[in-house]
Structures are given as structure tokens and as C-alpha cells.
Amino acid sequence: MPAPAYTVTFLGTSSGVPTLQRNLSSVAIQREGELFLFDCGEAAQIQYRRAGLGFAPLAGICVTHLHGDHVTGLMGLLMSLQMAERIEPLAICGPPGIREYVRLNRRALHTRFAYPIQFIEADTAAVLREADGYRLLCAPLEHRLLCLGFALMEKPRPGRFNLEAARVLGIPEGPLYGRLQSGEPVSLPDGRTVLPEQVLGPPRPGASVAFCTDTRPCAAAVDLARDTDLLIYEGTFDASSATEAHRKGHSTVAEAAQIALAAGVRRLAITHLSPRYRDVEPLLEQARAIFPNTLMARDLMQLEVYRRDEEPAGRP
């Protein structure tokens, strides 16, 4: 059975303050040998350890904005990486000010980091990382201060190799098959050139995950999440509290579902829940009335995101 493209672990799903059941905002997303942490609320590193995640794969930390419930766990995690004798570079992405936040805290705490930190600050839509096989994107959302949404987008993969077509064309088995699968034209011993599209099916889309919090409902969130396999979106308030939600720069669970519907996503996971709600089942019902394939995230929940042509049968 194919491995998932991403494994998503919710480390914190509360907003504002932690509760005994929910820590503050943080989500870990693993892809192959890399792990990205989205937001780093208070005690994120404790949840990180509880989830059994290792420090070695941590490639980057993406901070949505500089409200305390999204960033107060960052310095503790960075210091733990130092104590673990990390030497690999670490990327920290976020809005302007994230570099200064780390610098001031490092100075106040009389600490230093032996490993290199690459700060990537953005205040507009941007490609933050261009790597083999995927992109890390960001876009400004609508909150009370500059807040970034993020998306991990796999690049399209070559189509499936048509062995019968290759045999009809007289391509000898061996290295030429691999070169064609990599998108490279090949020359045959008789002088003919075979193009990849002659033996490959249509390109196969990669998997994608978007992370949008904190924000009012906005077009930027729809655009960033367009056609993603999983949208992680805030649902701070119930549907009856839209006025309060918008005044505070947030969305209701019903609006989260409307964003998912407008963006054409496959699954919606709602996070960043107000601690006022002890029973989240009514909120889940409000969202599912609009977008049925919705779940309410909880701390230490794990989700697997598969590429569409590799998804196991029977998955929702």
C-alpha cells in the first residue's frame, strides 16, 4: 500500500488560552524525510514529544502571526534544539518581526544557537521554499494584524509509464525506461527519438495541505486553499457568533465550511476553537451541514493525506 504524502499531527487546537484538553495552536506536517511545524504555541514542544516526533526531521517552523497563542512556544523549542546539539540549519518563516522576536528573546534569555537559522519574512503572497517535489507558499489573510496562511503543495508527478506502448515502440528494457519516466527524451539504436509523452500517461497531481488561521472569511484563504486535499482552518466561534468573530478577526465554524466549499477542498479540519466550548459536537454539526467532509481537530490527532491516485479505497 502506498505511503501517505503527508502525516498531519495536531499538537494544539485551542485559541487564546490553553485548556486541560487543548494546547495552543501548533500543527506538525511530515512529508517524506522532512517535518514542518505550523505555529508554535505555548508548550508545543511537549506535545511534539508526546506525539513521538523527532527533532532531526524538523526542517522549518512557519509562524502565522505574532499573537502570543501562536508563538510563545518558539523560544523553548529553539533552546531544546540547542540542548540536543543540533547543527543542521533551520528555517523560520513568518511575518516581518519574527526575526526581531527571536533576537530579543535570545538576548533577554542569554542564550545562543550553534545551528544556523534562516529567517524568511513575508508580507505578500510568496513562494517561501522551492524544493524537489513541492513548494511552500504563503498569503496574507485578514486578521487584526498581519497574518499569513501557508500551503504545502506537491508538484505534479509524471504520468504512469505505459509498458505496452514502450514495447510497441521497440524501446529496449533498462535505463531508457527510467530516463523517459524522468521526463527526458531518449534516442534509440536505430536513430529514432522517443519523447516522454509517447509512453507516459497524463501528469498526476500531487497532494496538498493548507493552514489558515487566524482570519476572517476572505478571498485570500479561498485562493490559497483551492483544490487542496486537506484544509486546516480556524473555527473559533459557533455560527451564532459571527459578529463577535469578525470583530476579533476570526471565523465561525460555519464560515470555515463555506471557505472549504468555495475552495473545492477534499477535507476540512477545524482548529483554533474557543475554550468556551466544552462540547464541540454542535459546532461540528453546523459545519457538516454545509461541508459534510469536516472533522473537528483535537490534540494529538493524526491525519494521513494521500495522493489522489494512491488513496486507499473506502477513505472519506
The percentage of residues in β strands lies in 25-35%
Into which percent range does the helicity of residues fall?
10-25%
Proper CATH architecture of the largest domain: 4-Layer Sandwich
Total beta-strand segments: 16
Main β sheet profile:
7 strands, mixed
Please state the structural category.
alpha/beta
End-to-end C-alpha gap: 17 Å
Widest β-sheet, arrangement of strands:
6-5-4-3-2-1-16
The CATH H-level homologous superfamily of the largest domain: Ribonuclease Z/Hydroxyacylglutathione hydrolase-like
CATH class of the largest domain: Alpha Beta
State Rg: 22 Å
CATH topology of the largest domain: Metallo-beta-lactamase, Chain A
> Which geometry do the CA atoms define?
globular
Q: For the residues shown, what is the average pLDDT?
A: 96
Order of helices and strands: EEEHEHHEHEEEEHHEEEHEHHEHEE
How many structural domains can be distinguished in the coordinates?
2
| Number of helices, counting only DSSP H or I runs of 4 residues or more | 10
Sequence stretches where pLDDT stays below 50 over 5 or more residues: none
Structure characterization notes:
- The protein has ten helices and 16 strands.
- It is of the alpha/beta class and 316 residues long.
- The chain has two domains: 254 residues, Metallo-beta-lactamase, Chain A, CATH 3.60.15; 36 residues, no CATH class.
- The strands form three sheets. It has a seven-stranded mixed β-sheet. A seven-stranded mixed β-sheet has the order 7-8-9-12-13-14-15. Strands 10-11 form a two-stranded antiparallel sheet.
- Strand 2 and strand 3 form a beta hairpin.
- The two termini are 17 Å apart.
